[in-house]
Structure formats: C-alpha cells, structure tokens
Amino acid sequence: MSVPLLKVGAVLSTMIMITNWMSQKLPALVGLDQHFARPGTSEKIISVLYPGEDEGWQVYGSVRGKCVCSIMTPAQGACGGDPRHCRLQQLSDHVLNVSQYMELLNQRTAQDLQQLKDSETLLDALETRLKTAHDDPHSVTTKSLQELRWSVSQCRPLRALLGRLRADAGQLESLKEELEKLKYSLSVLQEHFTLRHYQRLQQRASVLQQHLHTCSSQLGCGRLTGISAPLTVRSSGSRFGSWMMDTVIDSSDNRVWVMDGYLKGRRLVEYQSLGDFASGQNFIVHHLPHPWAGTGHVVYNGSLYYNKHHSNVLVRYDLASGGVQQQRSLHHAGFNNTFPYSWGGSSDIDLMADEMGLWAVYTSIAHGGNMVLSRLHPDTLEVERSWDTGFPKRSAGESFLICGTLYVTNSHLAGAKVHYTFHTATASYEYTDIAFHNQYSHISMLDYNPRTRALYTWNNGHQVLYDLTLLHFIRTADDAWDAETPHTD
Ligand SMILES: *[C@@H]1O[C@H](CO)[C@@H](O)[C@H](O)[C@H]1NC(C)=O
Ligand SMILES: *[C@@H]1O[C@H](CO)[C@@H](O)[C@H](O)[C@H]1NC(C)=O
Ligand SMILES: *[C@@H]1O[C@H](CO)[C@@H](O)[C@H](O)[C@H]1NC(C)=O
Questions:
Q1: Is there an atom of ligand 3 within 6 Å of 338 CB?
Q2: Most buried residue, 135, 199, 237, 241, by CB count within 10 Å?
Q3: Which residue has the least CA distance to atom 9 on ligand 3?
Q4: Is residue 190 part of a domain?
C-alpha cells in the first residue's frame, strides 16, 4: 500500500486544522488548566494517513487519555459516492417534474374557469329567451328562432371544456398517487439516512478508533510539520536564560527547572509544577557547585547536564542528591563564546534530549565551525557517535532534536524559521521552511522535550511553549476496511 503524493496537500491542510485545535487546547494540554489537566500525563500527537478504499479516509488524532480524530472523506463523484444521494437526486428531480406539471394544470384550469364564466352570460341570455318564448308562443318569430339557435351554438365549446376538466380531474388523481409514492420513498430514504446511516457512521467510528489505537501502539517517531502559536507561560528573569522539565522521567514529576542568565550562573530554581512556575510560587533554590556557561542545559532522567563556565567540560549534577556525578571534557569542542549560536551568550555547547537519548551540539576548529551532533552516554558522558551536520554553527539561531533529526533555525530574531534539518539515521540533510511566531524577537534557548512533546523557549525574558505537529505515516491493514464498503440500496 503506497501513499500517493497527491494526498499530501490534503494532509497538510488538515494538519493546520489540528494545529489550530492544538493551540486552542494548549494551556490544558501542558497542565496550566487544572480543570482539564491530569498531572503527569504526556501529550502525544498521532496522525494517520489511511490510504483506504476510494482514495482513502484520512485520520488524524491527538491522544491524551481521549482520542480526537477528524476524518476527511475522499473526493467524490456526482452522487457523492453514496447511492442514496443519487436516489435523493432522482426524487427531487421527480418532485420538480410533478410540481411543474401541476403548475401547467393550474394555468389551464384558470383559463377554463374564465371560459366558463363567459359561457354563464350566454346561458343566462338563452334562458331569458326560452322563458319569453314559453310565456308568449306568439312572439316566436323566424328571427328569434335563429337567434336562439345561434345562442345554443355558442354553448357548444362547453362540451369540450367539460371533457378537458374531466381529463384534468383524472390527471390530478394520478398526481395525487404520484405524490403519495414520493412521500413513501422519502420516508424510506429518511429511515436509511437516519438509522442505517447512523449505524454505519458508528461502525466507521469504531474502526477509526481501532486504527487510532493501533497507531498509538505503533507510534514511531514523527516528522515535524508545524509549530503552534506561542503560549507565554511566564514573563520572568533576564533577557537570556533557560527553563526546562525532565525529558525522561514520567508521570508524577512535573517539576520546572530555571537557570536565569548565561554567564557564570550557579542558581538553579526548582518549581513543583508548571502551574507553580506560571504563578511564581512554591520554589526551592539550589546552588550548583560549578558555574555554567550558555543556555544549553538539559534535565535528563533526574540529572541536570550543563557546560561548565570557561571550559568545554560537561557536568552531570544529580538533582536528588545535589552532587556532581560526572564531569568530562567534550574533546575539541569550542567554548567561551568561540562558536556560539547567532545570539552569542557563550552558547557554544548545547545539550539536548530526544526520544533516543542525550545529545550535544557544538563545533570545533577541526570541523570548520560546522555544527557537530554527538550522542552521549548519559552516565559516563562519553561520546558514542558523532555527525558533522554541515551547517555553520554561528549562522544557526538554535537547534533541537526530535527522533534523531536535528532541526536548526536560521535566526534568533523575528522572522526565524526552522530552516535546516539533519537526519542521523541517514546522515543526510535537507532545507526546510517551518515557520513559527517569534513573539518577543530574541530567542536564547529552544529545546524539544520528548516527554511533553513541546518546544520550550526563553524569549527575551519570557518563558514560552510551542506545541508541535508531528506527522506519522502509519500503515494499517485493509481488511477491516473492506467490510466498510457502502451497500447499494
Ligand atoms: C422529468 O421530466 C423530464 C422531461 O419532461 C424527463 O426526461 C425526466 O425523466 C423526468 N424526471 C423524472 C424524475 O421524472
Ligand atoms: C533513568 O535512570 C534509572 C536509574 O535511576 C535507570 O534505571 C534508567 O534506565 C534510566 N533511563 C534512561 C532512559 O536513561
Ligand atoms: C574566556 O574569555 C575571557 C574573556 O573573553 C578570558 O578572560 C578568559 O581567559 C577565557 N578563558 C579561557 C579558558 O579561554
């Protein structure tokens, strides 16, 4: 089962719909709306393209305890792909014919009535003449007899009129029958439309639900196709900084970690939840043993990973015990604002996490300033594998990883977009054009969190979230669908 290219347009337009829906629901999804949010549940966006019968149904959904899916029916012919629509069309044509015919009858009857009225005057005159003749037989002359005959001849068309009226009465009778039949057909059709149509819709809905279920269990890594409108969670701190949530630990840990500033900071602020962070309450301040550089920190599986000030040393700080568990130099990596992102700020080394693990983005003189992506062992901080992405680090606004694909923005200023992607699976790159709204015009941190499936940014002293549209192509078996072929009536 292949996916024709043709459908991609339709897919993308529906994606926009979903994205809009997502942006409306975003506060609830990220847990700001306490009424809807369940603590510790994570958001997953599932999109299914179903290449089924008739060029297919397309299913998209968002799963978070509940499923939301939208269905696009395939492009259809004159009858809308449903024989009932054809029947309905025929019936309404028929009704049109019948009503046109009734109009005709109506006009004819009106003419006939006028003629009858004219004849009435004639009959009156005839009656008077006959009465005079009867009362006084002597008054009857040849002339008056001629006049009487003429009057009678004038009444002759009345016979034809009578015949026509008789015929019309017959027509009316058959039209009445016709209308009865139409009424019946319509009621049968209505029954189908309500009961059977409803049943079929229900059947389809349950099949779709199965598909969504199958798809959520098969959910692989999605490809980024859209970024929602920004949601400002809070406005706090200086222009540059970093805020994050654990990218691995699930359920109950909804703590938010904040590191304000990019130079020599040691103050790590912990909030109990996103809600606490948004309202600025319930926080604990930790002091890190070593100061940090830049904003590329990440919280991964209960540890904070960051770049030690004035060095290319990576530090793993255990959040539970408050102790440094590991320190290791990232060999040859530039530091001290030698190879920062476009905004500067000693953002030489950017640590990040995705569905596949812990990573570092940096560069060195040997790589000529091109962004290097390295997979790190989370315990030892050793480099497991590296890729040269081919994109100059100083020209990048920021970068983030989703499912082993690095997404690079072209600026930290207004008008920034996701401009370049590098796939580690194939070691290949491509140029992209994924726009997003850089609301406060200066992004100093941009990271994807695979657990909450959102983008976290620090934008000119505002902490902002974006939701993402990830496109998944998931193939499902046809067999369940074939049973769904509409029956002809
Ligand atoms: C309506 O009338 C036209 C011409 O009079 C005829 O061709 C057509 O079949 C009629 N349609 C129906 C549904 O009776
Ligand atoms: C997270 O840490 C626990 C031990 O604290 C370990 O068992 C688990 O494998 C780690 N998960 C990842 C994804 O590294
Ligand atoms: C880092 O840069 C500062 C000033 O820009 C300089 O004083 C310092 O010596 C540098 N440190 C290293 C280790 O290069």
A1: no
A2: 241
A3: 310
A4: no
CATH of the domain at 291: 2.120.10.30
In a domain, 489, yes or no: no
Do residues 137 and 210 share a domain? Answer: no
Structure tokens given for 430: 């491509």
Both 110 and 43 in one domain: the answer is no
Report the pLDDT value the prediction gives residue 484, as an integer from 0 to 100.
36
Mean pLDDT of 412-429: 96
Domain that holds residue 65: 7-78+196-220+476-482
Instruction: State which of 310, 313, 338, 346 you would mutate to test the pocket of ligand 3, scoring each by most atoms of that ligand within 8 A of its C-beta.
Output: 310
Q: Is residue 210 part of a domain?
A: yes
Same domain assignment for residues 432 and 288: yes
- In tens, the pLDDT along 421-450 reads 999 999 999 999 999 999 999 999 999 998
Instruction: State residue 171's pLDDT score.
Output: 84
Higher pLDDT, 208 or 38: 208
Is 444 contained in some domain? yes
Query: Could you tell me if 336 and 383 lie in one domain?
Result: yes
Distance 248 CA to ligand 2 centre (A): 8
Same domain (yes/no): 252, 320: yes
Domain count, the chain: 3
Q: Which ligand is nearest to the CA of 299?
A: 2
Contact 26, 465 (CB under 8 A): yes
- Is the C-beta atom of 264 inside 6 A of ligand 3? no
Least confident of 65-79, 265-279, 323-337, 446-460: 65-79
Residue 73 has pLDDT above 70, yes or no: no
Residues in CB range of 13: below 8 A, 6 or more apart: none
pLDDT per residue over 236-258, tens digit each?
Answer: 999 999 999 999 986 678 899 99
